[in-house]
TrEMBL record:
It comes from Natribaculum luteum. Its cofactor is pyridoxal 5'-phosphate. InterPro entries: ArAA_b-elim_lyase/Thr_aldolase, Low_specificity_L-TA-like, PyrdxlP-dep_Trfase, PyrdxlP-dep_Trfase_major, PyrdxlP-dep_Trfase_small. This is Threonine aldolase family protein. CDD domains: TA_like.
Amino acid sequence: MIDLRSDTVTKPDEEMREVARDAAVGDDVYGEDPTVNELEARAADLVGKEAALYVPTGTMGNQVAARVHTEHGQEVLADRQSHVVKYELGGLAQHSGLQVRMLDADPNGVPTPEQVADGYVAEDVHRPGTGLLCLENTHNARGGRAIPSGEIAAAAEAAHDHGVPVHLDGARVFNAAVALDVPVTDITEPVDSVMFCLSKGLGAPVGSMLAGSEEFVERARRTRKLFGGGMRQVGVIAGPGLRALENVDDLATDHENARVLADGLDSVAGLSVAEPETNIVLADVAETGLDAAAVIDRLRDHEVLATQFGPTTVRFCTHRDVDREDVETAVDRVATALE
Ligand SMILES: *Cc1c(COP(=O)(O)O)cnc(C)c1O
């Protein structure tokens, strides 16, 4: 089976398992887990922020950030296709009493400064006020688009002009930095907080990081506890997370494999595939006469796994557990499956 559903399917390698076994641990709720402390310091340093917090999932990182940045009842500006809007169970409303003002940030998911300014709502007797702008890079639902740092900076500046803080859902922000060939700090510098996942292309079994100012992270630590995410001897998973940070450069290989995959899939009759910018490949299957669910069923019968991303859109994701040969084999199998 060639599993291209997501980069989250990556399994910890032998080295990570050894790191897990040997990790120094302590009670992290008391701040006594040395491995977590090292991971938090290293993560903060990497993205150029004062501090960072280890969280079990990217979703918790985004939700904690939104809670800390806002007051109950405020509005959040976010792209209609963003993960916080589409895939987090309406958590902004459920956890923090927030109302989302959705922006159609075409084509790559970053609102223009004008869209941010238009979407901004000043607090008055009728209106709750805008409490947060949420950005995403790479942009998952828009096909792993790598957003240039200038666009992030422009949107962030427009929010800051109105006194609105900015959170970046950077689940795959290192994919963006590698694809754009810029230091990740170019992308994270303009935002007040950033979440990134260790558990996707970087290959760790569990965990994400939430970074920002000392004060932000101090408050985020309390909110993580409130959300049930205060963990104990968690160095056993933070250790592999530290090891995963050494895998950043390998993401370039995933991107190359994604281009090979996209190229191959695009030549399969009935599939239309845009050139990927990172490790996510979106295929439009409408011309096959099948819908995405039917295509995915057929692919499974031919030992290829992919994800439905729309009525006729199928997502394929490259990652460290598939190599060039797997990708080429996958293309052959897809061609056979759709014959
Ligand atoms: C995967 C993902 C998340 C959430 O990460 P989980 O660890 O699965 O909760 C958030 N944002 C984006 C863009 C993602 O792709």
